[in-house]
Amino acid sequence: MASNAIPSETQRAKLERKERVILDAARAIFVDHGFDGARMQEIARRAGIGEGTVYSYYESKAELMLAVLQQFWDGLTLEAEGVMASVEATDLFARLEALARYHLNTVIVNADFINLTFALRRNNSEVSVSRDHLRHYVAVFDRLFLRGQDRGELRADAVLWQARDIFYGSLEYSARSIETTMEADRSTREQLPVVDEMVALFRAHYGATGNPVIVDEVGLATRLDKLAAQIDTLSRCLPRP
Amino acid sequence: MASNAIPSETQRAKLERKERVILDAARAIFVDHGFDGARMQEIARRAGIGEGTVYSYYESKAELMLAVLQQFWDGLTLEAEGVMASVEATDLFARLEALARYHLNTVIVNADFINLTFALRRNNSEVSVSRDHLRHYVAVFDRLFLRGQDRGELRADAVLWQARDIFYGSLEYSARSIETTMEADRSTREQLPVVDEMVALFRAHYGATGNPVIVDEVGLATRLDKLAAQIDTLSRCLPRP
Amino acid sequence: MASNAIPSETQRAKLERKERVILDAARAIFVDHGFDGARMQEIARRAGIGEGTVYSYYESKAELMLAVLQQFWDGLTLEAEGVMASVEATDLFARLEALARYHLNTVIVNADFINLTFALRRNNSEVSVSRDHLRHYVAVFDRLFLRGQDRGELRADAVLWQARDIFYGSLEYSARSIETTMEADRSTREQLPVVDEMVALFRAHYGATGNPVIVDEVGLATRLDKLAAQIDTLSRCLPRP
Amino acid sequence: MASNAIPSETQRAKLERKERVILDAARAIFVDHGFDGARMQEIARRAGIGEGTVYSYYESKAELMLAVLQQFWDGLTLEAEGVMASVEATDLFARLEALARYHLNTVIVNADFINLTFALRRNNSEVSVSRDHLRHYVAVFDRLFLRGQDRGELRADAVLWQARDIFYGSLEYSARSIETTMEADRSTREQLPVVDEMVALFRAHYGATGNPVIVDEVGLATRLDKLAAQIDTLSRCLPRP
DNA sequence: CATGAATGAGAGTTCATTCAT
DNA sequence: AATGAATGAACTCTCATTCAT
Fold it and tell me: I want to staple C80 with a disulfide (CB 3.0 to 4.6 A). Which of A155, B141, C140, D79 is the partner?
């Protein structure tokens, strides 16, 4: 029994480790060469195993790709949730900023892979479950947003998917731009302001206090008027030269 | 000579026509099957010419793809500029809305092809000039934006590339979402509001009257209050007339 | 037109010639190594063409095999019919002998290929139309047999398929035996007697004149005995001289 | 020692049992998929053992196939001899009929496997000992035939191998035809008459009474002579005209 | 110039066999 | 002794590219 139980544990660990090794290798090669461009032989070589061995873990190249995608997006979702959990502040916008920062960084780092995901032909019936992965991932944002509305931190009439499109869309596009720019001139722009801008935009546009501009504009105007009146008074008190 | 010159014109026209036919065929096949999935034979058949003939116009599959991309993005840019030219209103936001509407529609219709563009591996040294095409295309937005700043319609301190990322990013992401959603439930959401929201957001956030208030709002109020206090103090110290 | 017609003729001839070359090469390799054992590469090499070229003539290995089978059995049938046509004698048994001799020789020469035909797995849904080929081929015998019955050369109550089984079965089995024996000791037996035996057997067993003897033998004897008895009786009735 | 001897017996029995299990599994898989189509893994799975274990009993797939063939043909031979032993009648033709019936049935039931035997390429030096198996098997017929000649039941001048070819050849061919026919139209023909026909043919053609024509010809001639003598006597008794 | 038959390198995948456990 | 994960050579088939016509 012991001679059976311990090895089985060891073996299972081994298999799982090897599975991870294969997935890592596959991901690297897929990212480097795309789905069609990737050669199973190279994946196997990178994983340090024989060609045939890959096929005892994954029935085909397409299925391997699927597993890689699964792992990637699941990992992303988990990490994003982890980020949310680790933010101490309960303030919605602070949490939003954390999510944006995490997402932007992720998208920059994994740009190739994300492109790869979307490149998988919808027509290519073999590999295309990506939509589900994506849905899971963006659900992190959705929950944050909806809770924000529940708590009255966000306008009740804000439309979830519009906000979501703006949030992820802007960040992804930025990531692409940043990547492109960095290659040419790394110093030209920083990524940080993008997130700040994003959060500011959300605060201004979707924040419950509403379009703060209008409200405070009045306040400022009032104060300025008051100040002007004071100065006017003051100036009248001064001795004329 | 004349017997040579006239035919040569005809021939040139012929060549150009055939070139267009090839490009159209190629684009259709590339969109349907992706770069690797497309077969030169099918492209040739669709263009109604022999396989070898394609190679007398384009040296390789990669170069053909490049030409297709070129044509596509150039066409897009031209169309976008045409849209701009046809908008009678000089109002920035009206023009922005027209551009957004055109872009969203374009992105939805050509989703496959746009994905294809980004899917072309940067590493795959063969095909990857897409960045330039993209730059050209977004320049339409850039010009609109800069002119808006010149005219004072937009905040002078607005950052071009941030606005651009938000503009195109949101729209592209929306397009993707819309496409996904439409497949499942076409009635759930409409695409039009997306553009409206986008323009509203721009007007509020980047409009000339708008923005500085938000960022410095608190600081300014504080400073103004402080200033008012100083003046108050000062006024009290002054001898009454 | 001429520039089109003549080349097309040449081309067609070329294609047909190449097709024959491929079939011949394929047959040789299939016979040598069996269906699974045959390598397309070797077939191509033997045909003196590139690997890919084979696939522009036959969609797959299975289809190539099918074509080889088709050609083989069709050729056999044609040859057998040719043999029948060339026999001047109208005598059934002379014709039968010619067919038997042709068949035996064919079966010996093509033993490998015939085995190959029957070896194609019925389960292997890909290649297995052999039954039809076979039916066509044995129809030559069937026609001969039926005409023999029509002409009264063969017993009217002889069963076609029994005769056919005996005819082809014996010859095939003999061929196999002969082949086996020849390898070990070529001189031990001759193939000629087999055919003679076969024909003798048919003449005796199925021949119209042959058979009644056996069947009516008893009847004749009975009648003769009866006749003898009658004469005996008669003789006793006669007055002695 | 005792503790060693008894288990060793058990172990030997175990080994032999496992060997049988492997052979049975192998035969089933070989019949179902052919030699090349059979996978060692499936054979092992069907035998309920590990893949590697098969190789501790048989060095290679080819050798396993050989063993299966051996077992099959030996079994066939044994069964055929059993059938011969169980026939109470000492009459040659009754025994022949039993053998024919057994053989026909066997050939029908094991058609796939018999085809498989002949399909093993002679060139494929690995597996091809089938000839010996066959020789052993047909020896049952040979013994029967020779004893028949010894006893005077068969013509002394009949040629063994000719008779053998006719016997087995016809039956095998019939089996194939029956199989083919049955698939299409089971009712069209019965298998039983084949054996009857076979035996009748042997009795007529090879039976010692012989070429009945000749023998009875004598009988008839004798009777006719006798009759002639009687008539002659009679005629002499008649009054001369 | 246009053609499309020919090419062959290279792809994914299989499976008999081995060997560490 | 038994296992089955690992191996990699070898298979069939594809398709971008060439070139004789």
Answer: C140
**Chains touching B, CB cut-off 8 Å, 3+ pairs:** A
Residue B239 belongs to some domain of the structure: no
According to DSSP H, which parts of D120-207 are helical? Answer: 130-150, 160-184, 192-206
Contact in structure between A179 and A191 (CB atoms under 8 Å): no
Handedness of CA A149, A153, A154, A155 (dihedral sign): positive
- Beta carbons within 10 angstroms of residue D200's beta carbon: 16
Overall domain count for chain B: 2
Per-residue confidence (pLDDT) for residue D215, from 0 to 100: 42
Q: Is the CB of D16 under 7 A from strand F?
A: no
| CA of residue A136 to C1' of nucleotide F15, angstroms | 39
Chains B and C touch, using 3 or more CB pairs below 8 Å: no
Per-residue pLDDT of D149-187, as tens digits, reads 999 899 888 888 889 989 999 988 888 777 766 655 544
User: Given an 8 Å threshold on Cβ–Cβ distance, is C166 in contact with D168?
Assistant: no
- Mean pLDDT, residues A96-122 taken together: 82
**Does A95 lie in the same domain as A212?**
yes
Chosen from B35, B170, B203 to mutate, greatest number of chain A CBs within 10 A: B170
Neighbouring CB atoms inside 10 A of D9's CB total 10
Q: Is residue A241 part of a domain?
A: no
Query: Residue D24 CB: number of other CB atoms within 10 A?
Result: 15
How is D210-231 classified by DSSP, letter by letter? -SHHHHHHHHHHHHHHHHHHHH
Q: What are phi and psi of A39, to 5 degrees?
A: -110, 135
Instruction: Kindly state the DSSP code that residue B153 receives in the 8-state scheme.
Output: S
**What is the C-alpha to C-alpha distance for residues C167 and D197, in angstroms, rounded to an integer?**
13
Q: Are residues A149 and A30 in the same domain?
A: no
Q: What is the pLDDT of residue B27?
A: 93
CATH (domain of A2): 1.10.10.60
3-class secondary-structure state, position A207: strand
The nearest CA of chain A is from the CA of B5 a distance in Å of: 47
Residue D75 resides in a domain: yes
Q: What is the number of CB-based contacts under 8 A between chain A and chain B? A: 163
Question: Do C85 and C199 sit in the same domain of this protein?
Answer: yes
Displacement of CA C172 from its chain's centroid (Å) = 8
Query: Could you give the percent of chain D with pLDDT greater than 90?
Result: 35
Regarding whether D47 and D84 lie in a shared domain, the answer is: no
The parent domain of residue D92 ranges over: 67-234
Predicted confidence band of residue C212 (pLDDT cuts 50, 70, 90) = very low
Find, in chain D, the residue whose alpha carbon is nearest to that of C193: D162
Residues B140, B174 within the same domain: yes
**Residue C154, SS3 per DSSP:** strand
Q: Is residue C227 part of a domain?
A: yes
- C-alpha closest to that of B207 among B152, B139, B167: B152
The residue in chain D having the minimum alpha-carbon distance to the alpha carbon of residue C192 is D162
CA distance C6 to chain D (A): 45
CA A193, chain centre distance (Å):
16
- Distance, angstroms, CA A53 to C1' E14? 12
In whole angstroms, give the CA distance from residue C144 to residue C95: 8
Task: Determine whether the distance from the CB of A3 to the nearest atom of strand F is below 7 Å.
Answer: no
Q: How confident is the model at residue C53 (pLDDT cuts 50, 70, 90)?
A: very high
Q: Is the pLDDT of residue D212 over 50?
A: no
Query: Which of B17, B15, B16, B39 has its CA nearest to residue B28?
Result: B39
Q: Chain B interface, mutation test: which of A165, A202, A218, most B Cβ atoms within 10 Å?
A: A165
Q: Measured between alpha carbons, how far apart are the two ends of chain B, in Å?
A: 102
Nearest to C194 among D36, D162, D219 (CB): D162
CATH label of the domain that carries residue B80? 1.10.357.10
A196 touches strand E (CB under 7 A): no
Domain boundary (D42, D59, D76) is at: D59
Nucleotide nearest to B33 (CA to C1'): F15
